């Protein structure tokens, strides 16, 4: 039984070691949109990439924001890529809500990636004409931090009972310590 376990374990190890070179030579899976990262924040769309490493005529490349009716790079809203050879980005502001396609083309003519993005409509706060700002009163007593920030008014009886318990505890502690300090005579 013990020998069987050793052989099974070593067989699994050999299989894993044999599969490692195959996994390393397979390379990463390529898909459209993996070379760029598109984010939105309100009405701003930003694209970043690390694929455009060469600079041609001072430019790293450009990006285009295409709406649903546009079919090619030249029809979109274009922005130049800025950054370093390790990271490049471009941004568009005041983008209306809808679905867009972002295409990034490097200065050497290669496409870094294509990705779709949804821009949500900006939420506008509603202000009532009759509402006026008012200050809320501060709590009259301390805040109970361990109970979630609620305030509570304790009465005189609660404070008196707490004082009696603290005093009784102090007296009992003194009595026990005094008793232990005496020598025990037989």
From the N-terminal CA to the C-terminal CA, the straight-line distance is 66 Å
The helix count comes to 2
* Rough outline: elongated
Q: Residue-averaged pLDDT, rounded? A: 74
Describe the structure.
- The protein has 186 residues and is an alpha+beta fold.
- Helix content is 27%, strand content 25%.
- The protein is built from two helices and eight strands, in the order αββββββββα.
- The protein has a four-stranded antiparallel sheet, with no helix packed on it. A four-stranded antiparallel sheet has the order 4-3-7-8, with no helix packed on it.
- Strand 5 (82-83) and strand 6 form a beta hairpin.
- The chain is elongated and about 95 Å long.
- The model is unreliable at 11-33 (pLDDT under 50).
List keywords for this structure.
single chain, 186 residues, alpha+beta, 4-stranded antiparallel beta sheet, 2 helices, elongated
What is the secondary structure topology, with strand pairs?
Elements: H1 2-26, E1 36-41, E2 44-49, E3 61-66, E4 77-80, E5 82-83, E6 88-92, E7 98-106, E8 111-119, H2 156-181
Antiparallel strand pairs: 1-2, 2-6, 3-4, 3-7, 5-6, 7-8
Task: Quickly describe the structure.
The protein has helices at 2-26, 156-181, and strands at 36-41, 44-49, 61-66, 77-80, 82-83, 88-92, 98-106, 111-119. By secondary structure, it is an alpha+beta fold.
């Amino acid at each position: 039984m013990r020998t069987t376990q050793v052989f099974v374990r070593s067989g699994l190890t050999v299989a894993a070691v044999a599969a490692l070179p195959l996994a390393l030579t397979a390379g990463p899976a390529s898909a459209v949109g993996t070379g760029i990262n598109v984010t939105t924040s309100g009405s701003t769309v930003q694209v970043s990439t690390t694929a455009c490493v060469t600079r041609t005529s001072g430019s790293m490349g450009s990006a285009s924001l295409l709406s649903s009716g546009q079919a090619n790079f030249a029809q979109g809203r274009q922005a130049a890529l800025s950054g370093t050879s390790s990271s490049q980005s471009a941004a568009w502001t005041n983008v209306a809500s809808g679905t867009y396609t972002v295409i990034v083309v490097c200065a050497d003519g290669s496409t870094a990636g294509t990705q779709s993005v949804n821009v949500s409509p900006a939420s506008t706060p509603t202000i009532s004409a009759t509402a006026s700002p008012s200050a809320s009163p501060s709590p009259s007593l301390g805040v109970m931090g361990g109970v979630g920030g609620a305030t509570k008014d304790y009465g005189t009886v609660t404070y008196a009972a707490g004082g009696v318990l603290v005093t009784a505890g102090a007296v009992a502690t003194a009595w026990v310590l005094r008793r232990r300090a005496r020598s025990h005579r037989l």
